[in-house]
Design brief:
The complex is a heterodimer of chains A (519) and B (150).
Chain A: H1 26-42, E1 70-73, H2 75-93, H3 97-106, H4 111-121, H5 123-128, E2 161-162, E3 170-171, H6 172-184, H7 203-209, H8 212-229, E4 233-235, E5 244-247, E6 259-261, E7 267-269, H9 283-306, E8 307-309, E9 316-318, E10 325-327, E11 334-336, H10 358-411, H11 422-446, H12 451-473, H13 481-511
Antiparallel strand pairs in A: 1-5, 2-3, 4-5, 6-7, 8-9, 10-11
Chain B: H1 6-17, E1 23-27, E2 34-40, E3 51-57, E4 68-71, H2 101-113, H3 123-131, H4 133-147
Antiparallel strand pairs in B: 1-2, 2-3, 3-4
Helix pairs in contact in B: 3-4
Protein name (chain B): E2 ubiquitin-conjugating enzyme
Pfam families (chain B): UQ_con
Keywords (chain B): ATP-binding, Nucleotide-binding, Transferase, Ubl conjugation pathway
Chain lengths: 519, 150
């Protein structure tokens, strides 16, 4: 058997597996109660997590999820959360903690549901969750005795042995070996007794029979399942981050866009799979946009550059030879590539499109326009959306220069480091405004004509104008920066409030279900 | 290779002493983890009257991982492919170290008696089995006669 899977989401350090996180240990109980008290002081809520640890970076207001409505959870918070749930169920059902944990695991950590179900149905629930007996159990390794033979390795002279309530006893070496295999395959509280009876091997037994490395892997699998069981929790998608974010608001409410920000600054939506801040687009609209982008963007761009629509049937046509006489294979129309007019009118020896007639042109144009307009409309929004994406990438370059500028200002005695701190925070505002702006184009693309749309477009225009204004300030040479500080601060506070207004306007419409989208 | 685990020698001993009717399994002299196996086709199945040869190997980690088993005799069966590989849950995800060579071979014998075309390994055979069971069973009989006669 190979070593523990290194691709595990957690390294050993993040899971102290010396037993201190085991709910049986006294230390942990103490920690837990402290942890609860803290929680209640901070905010009287029923969840298990302490206040979010704020990073030192400038906190930018999020309209959807203010810092108070999300918590970043470190691996140890997740373990504490599980322990607290277990303690609660254990207390109210008078079951041992390990039994409470199995019940919670079985029913996706729905604490109240588990308690009610057990109180109503009793032992039956225990059977279903893999506890075949409700006799008190002690998880201990038995001393060697002469009459014992391990049913797995058939050795009779092994030192120690272990069994669960089901009574299937094998030597500790075989038991550990068996558990190692199962844990490496991401097994957790679904690992059954090696005899394949339905008895589940509970956590205390696993802790007793495995080494630290495996325990860490086991805990991480438990946490993964724990996060997955909660629809208000999500793992931070940033590579190797290993933290989760929990929303303190309902994420199933469609009028909320729960954008979370991890301590590592990664932003992601808790309600959908988009791993960025997609405000002000509702999840569904954002998803539609991304789908359209995937389906069409490349083709569309290429087509708009390389093809012309057939004046009769509007099918896009690529000119693949030198001759201007085009024969549409779709509708059989013959036309001129240059003027898009009927080829017959060009005569037999006429390659000069000198037969401009306003009436004809208008008529031709009309039929093309309808279909062309659709494409143009898409291209309009797509170009702007994409432009902000590109600008955002270029802005990142600017960001790298900020530190240099700050150093220069300090060296030249123009500004202290502290005084120039407004630069990185202004950049954060710029980044965020762009992020919002690009998504406003996706929103506007699907927006049907309605009075509120005009307000939205005005908001968008204003945001865009001032975002570009701020972006320009960042192009200043370092010696102009001190003089422009006021401009930076003005722009930032304006942008901040404008962005807020725009998002709030959209959100208000969503709450009142006012927005009408195109199909 | 390490010394042969006691579990394996016990299983082998019992397979020889109390053989399962219709099944034989004997280890190679030079590799005690490698077994020559024969399974008789179950009565009232298309494989009746045939004797099928298989090979069985116990990997280093046995019994924590299942034995590797493969048909050597050509057989027409929806859950056994051209190379003789077998699609059977207890040989994969449902393996438990409490299972033994004996129980695995019994399961394979049972699989011959109850082909499951809804969970196929050999797609063409399974499709035939579903579309025209009569012909498929006849083919299985013919193959048994042709390839599995002792």
């Amino acid at each position: 058997m190979t070593d523990t899977d290194e691709s595990s989401q957690f390294d050993e350090e993040s899971y102290p597996s010396d037993g201190s996180l085991d709910y049986d240990s006294e230390d942990q109980d103490m920690e837990d109660s402290q942890f609860w008290e803290e929680d209640e002081e901070m905010e009287p809520s029923s969840d298990n997590f302490g206040a979010m640890s704020h990073s030192e970076a400038i906190q930018v207001d999020h309209t959807a999820l203010a810092a108070s409505s999300q918590r970043v959870l470190e691996p140890e918070d997740l373990l504490k959360g599980q322990a607290a749930d277990v303690a609660r169920v254990s207390e109210l059902t008078a079951l041992e903690p390990w039994r409470a944990e199995l019940l919670l695991w079985k029913d996706d950590w729905k604490v109240d549901h588990v308690i009610t179900k057990y109180l109503e149905q009793g032992e039956k629930v225990l059977r279903e969750a893999g506890m075949l007996s409700d006799d008190p159990v002690e998880f201990v390794i038995s001393k060697p005795r002469p009459d014992f033979m391990c049913f797995l390795c058939c050795d009779e002279d092994k030192a120690t042995s272990f069994k669960l309530a089901c009574g299937h006893e094998c030597c500790t070496e075989c038991y550990s070996h068996y558990l190692r295999g199962k844990i490496q395959e991401n097994g957790s509280l679904d690992i059954t007794c090696p005899m394949n009876c339905k008895e589940i091997v509970p956590k205390p037994a696993v802790m007793l029979l495995t080494d630290k490395k495996l325990q860490a892997k086991y805990q991480s699998t438990l946490c993964t399942r724990y996060v997955r069981a909660h629809n208000d929790m999500k793992w931070c998608p940033a590579p190797d981050c290993g933290k989760a974010v929990k929303a303190n608001i309902s994420v199933t409410d469609e009028s909320v866009i729960p954008i979370a920000e991890c301590n590592c600054h990664q932003q992601f939506c808790l309600a959908c799979n988009i791993d960025e801040d997609h405000l002000p687009c509702p999840c569904k609209v954002a998803a539609r946009w991304l789908e359209k982008l995937r389906d069409e963007s490349e083709t569309m761009t290429w087509m708009s550059v390389n093809t012309k629509p057939c004046p009769k049937c509007t099918n896009p046509i690529e000119k693949n030879g030198g001759c201007n006489h085009i024969n549409c294979t779709q509708c059989g129309n013959h036309f001129c590539w240059v003027c898009l007019g009927d080829w017959a009118k060009h005569g037999s020896s006429n390659y000069q499109c000198n037969m401009y007639s306003p009436e004809q042109a208008e008529e031709d144009q009309k039929s093309v326009n309808a279909k062309r307009e659709q494409l143009d409309r898409y291209m309009f929004f797509y170009t702007r959306y994409n432009n902000h994406r590109d600008s955002a990438k270029l802005d990142e370059k600017t960001y790298k220069n900020i530190t240099k500028t700050m150093e220069t200002l300090q060296k030249e005695g123009k500004m202290t480091w502290l005084e120039s701190r407004f630069l990185p925070s202004s950049f954060e505002i710029l980044r965020q405004s762009r992020q919002t702006l690009l998504w406003t184009y996706a929103f506007a693309f699907f927006l049907d004509a309605q009075p509120e749309r005009e307000i939205f477009l005005k908001n968008q225009e204003d945001l865009e104008l001032h975002t570009e204004g701020l972006s320009e300030l960042f192009e200043y040479k370092w010696d102009r920066i001190p003089g422009a500080k006021v401009n930076f601060l003005d722009k930032c506070s304006y942008l901040k409030s404008r962005r807020q207004k725009l998002v709030e306007h959209v959100m208000k419409g969503m709450e009142e279900r006012n927005w009408k989208f195109l199909n | 290779m390490n010394a042969l685990p006691k579990r394996i020698s016990k299983e082998t001993e019992r397979l020889v002493k109390e053989p399962v009717p219709g099944i034989s399994a004997a280890p190679h002299d030079d590799n005690l983890r490698y077994f020559d196996v024969t399974i008789d086709g179950p009565t009232s199945s298309p494989y009746e009257g045939g004797t099928f040869k298989l090979e069985l190997f116990l990997p280093e980690d046995y019994p924590m991982v299942p034995p590797k088993v493969r048909f050597l005799t050509k057989i027409y069966h929806p859950n056994i492919d051209r190379l003789g590989r077998i699609c059977l849950d207890v040989l994969k995800s449902n393996w438990s170290p409490a299972l033994q060579i004996r129980t695995i071979l019994l399961s394979i014998q049972a699989l011959l008696g109850a082909p499951n075309p809804d969970d196929p390994l050999a797609n063409d055979v399974a499709q035939k089995w579903k579309e025209d069971e009569k012909t498929a069973i006849q083919t299985a009989r013919d193959w048994t006669k042709e390839y599995a006669k002792a």
